[in-house]
Amino acid sequence: PIRHAMALSLLLLQRRKDITELRLDAIQDGYILIHQSKTGKRLMLRITPEIARLIERCRRYGGSSEYRVHKRARRKGQDGPPLSPESITRGFAKARDDSGVFVGIPSSKRPPFHEILGLGEARRREQGWTIGEIQAWRGHSSERMTAHYMRDHEYWERVEPGSGGKEFS
């Protein structure tokens, strides 16, 4: 379930709490409906093929559970409870530390779960998304806020020479 929560955050660009509250009935007509707990915004995010594959993996894991990310049921035939934001944080920290990538780095300097959102934003930029498109998916109130969150993720914008301009000789 932690892997599913991480992947959903990466693809949907949503906070932990909003991922934990994702439900089956939130998928309608090719969109996933998200009511953001922090901002109160209601977003309809288009389900891409990549997101559809992830949702199907979550469904296979979840059986009949109404939540997308949840713990396994303790008894056969029962649904597991949804994950809490805190359990996602702990699970991410364990996976991060078990990876061995951050050995020798003080725990206070290791990336938190929230960095998944920054990575998702950077991936979208690499795919050609504009700051405005990322802002809409994140539910930010302004492009400036989105740019603020993206500031620590290096992005190089390709600039080509104009066509039709005069060249220096």
Structure notes:
Helices cover 43% and strands 7% of the residues. The model has no long low-confidence stretch (mean pLDDT 85). A 3-stranded antiparallel sheet has the order 1-2-3, with no helix packed on it. The chain is mainly alpha-helical. The protein is built from 7 helices and 3 strands.
Features:
single chain, 169 residues, mainly alpha
| Strand numbers in spatial order across the main sheet | 1-2-3
Give the biggest beta sheet: 3 strands, antiparallel
- The total count of helices amounts to 7
End-to-end Cα distance, whole Å, is 61 Å
On the 0 to 100 scale, the average pLDDT is 85
List the helices and strands and how they pair.
Elements: H1 2-12, H2 16-20, E1 27-28, E2 31-35, E3 42-46, H3 49-62, H4 85-98, H5 115-126, H6 131-138, H7 143-150
Antiparallel strand pairs: 1-2, 2-3
Short description:
With 169 residues, the protein is mainly alpha-helical.
